[in-house]
Design goal:
By secondary structure, the protein is α/β, with parallel strands linked by helices. The protein is built from eleven helices and 15 strands. The protein binds NADP nicotinamide-adenine-dinucleotide phosphate and ligand G4F. The site of NADP nicotinamide-adenine-dinucleotide phosphate has 25 residues, from helix 1 and strand 5. NADP nicotinamide-adenine-dinucleotide phosphate (NAP) binds next to helix 1 and strand 5. This is GDP-mannose 4,6-dehydratase. Belongs to the NAD(P)-dependent epimerase/dehydratase family. GDP-mannose 4,6-dehydratase subfamily.
């Protein structure tokens, strides 16, 4: 039977890829959009699915709005991807972040409990919940220690997922996803900031990129693979929580080096901390600078996930490696910059 899914955050990176996957699987896909304007449609357009998704206006801040929407479409599956997802911004907007990322999830859960408790629910949890990591690598059993208002808000939502599963026997899953990137990643995140900036430098449109902490380590995977894991979680007999990660970690500095290398620049480093400079070996020009503006009040220094449970129970395994991911993103941005110059 044709299933109906509701994806919140449809205009985001993961929403767009998941929308495409569910359409391919024959779902009727409703995409919840908080009405932030036409320009936010670029991802759905790039994937050629902007006319296939049934867009509805829904903001996680507004209870009645969510209630009416769920009552009307009564989805079989809900994928809650909507969030204020930028960690840095959560230090400036901790209350908004908590309203959306914590209480917003509770609004959804409680409405489903009332209207259609058999709905299968995926919550976009995050490796940020591990924060100051208590164990390396991190597994589903590693204690949490969030280091940002974003991480704290997501942890509240994570425990609500567990609680609604245990208290009401609802099919609620928490996908604890480590960083996943793609050519559809937002420009505020370090990977796209770098690949887009590098493409502009390559084409003479920009001189340098100014960044923050180069020594933070992340377990970076490819978003289009991670959304398959989300879908698999909701197809199991039992609801459960799973880590999706690659099991490999790299510094931001390594990302810089690989990304520049993929378009023909060799980076030589000089200086330390905020005085660090990434210099083009050939011309001596400074291509990377560091500014305290991009540092966080509390940093997550290292993330490294162990995806063994997802592999064993879901048959999920990431294929795209770090180098391929970096190259894919840089090449996509080079193509975009060439288009922009036309
Ligand atoms: P994203 O690109 O930032 O997308 C988030 C979406 O949420 C955007 O479309 C945004 O709408 C929407 N949104 C924000 N506030 C909202 C509100 N009040 N009501 C309704 N919608 C709202 O994020 P992503 O990278 O696709 O990530 C998807 C989810 O996974 C997020 O919950 C994120 O926190 C979580 N996550 C991401 C990663 C990762 O590495 N990508 C890892 C772990 C967890 P606009 O388009 O209007 O701004
Ligand atoms: O790309 P980021 O902003 O991603 P972050 O903070 O790891 O969060 C992302 O992944 C989480 C999963 O672990 C998601 F839950 C969350 O929604 C989001 O998708 O920063 C990555 C690292 C940080 O250590 C940051 O301090 O890069 C460092 N960094 C250094 N310079 C920078 C910059 N980050 C950004 N955004 N911009 C910089 O200039």
């Amino acid at each position: 039977m044709n299933k109906t899914a509701l994806i919140t955050g449809i205009r985001g990176q993961d929403g767009a890829y998941l929308g495409r996957l569910l359409l391919e699987k024959g779902y009727t896909v409703f995409g919840a959009d908080r009405r932030s304007g036409e320009s936010g449609n670029w991802r759905l357009k790039e994937l050629g699915i902007e006319n296939e998704i049934k867009i509805i206006y829904m903001d996680l801040l507004e209870f009645e709005n969510i209630y009416r929407t769920i009552e009307r479409i009564k989805p079989d599956e809900i994928y809650n991807l909507a969030a204020q997802s930028f960690v840095h911004a959560s230090f400036e907007q901790p209350i908004l972040t908590s309203e959306v990322d914590a209480i917003g999830v509770l609004r959804l859960l409680d409405i489903i409990r009332t209207i259609k408790p058999e709905t299968r629910f995926y919550q976009a949890s995050t490796s940020e919940m591990f924060g100051k990591v208590q164990e390396i690598p991190q597994t589903e059993k590693t204690p949490f220690y969030p280091r940002s208002p974003y991480g704290v808000a997501k942890l509240f939502a994570h425990w609500m997922i567990v609680n609604y599963r245990e208290a009401y026997n609802m099919f609620t899953c928490s996908g604890i996803l480590f960083n996943h990137e793609s050519p559809l990643r937002g420009l505020e995140f370090i990977t796209r900031k770098l690949t887009y900036g590098i493409a502009r430098i390559k084409h003479g449109l920009q001189d340098k990129i100014v960044v923050g902490n180069l020594d933070a380590k992340r377990d970076w995977g490819y978003a289009d693979e991670y959304i398959q894991g989300m879908w698999l979680m909701l197809q199991q007999e039992q609801a459960d929580d799973y880590i999706l990660a690659t099991g490999e970690t790299h510094t931001v500095r390594e990302f810089v080096e690989y990304a520049f290398d993929s378009v023909g620049f060799k980076i030589r480093w000089e200086g330390q901390d905020v005085l660090t400079k990434g210099i083009d070996e050939k011309t001596g020009k400074v291509l990377i600078e560091v500014s305290p503006e991009f540092y966080r009040p509390a940093e997550v220094e290292l993330l490294l996930g162990n995806p063994a449970k997802a592999k064993e129970r879901l048959g999920w395994q990431p294929v795209v490696k770090f180098e391929e991911l970096v190259r894919m993103m840089t090449e996509a941005d080079i193509r975009r910059v060439i288009e922009e110059k036309r």
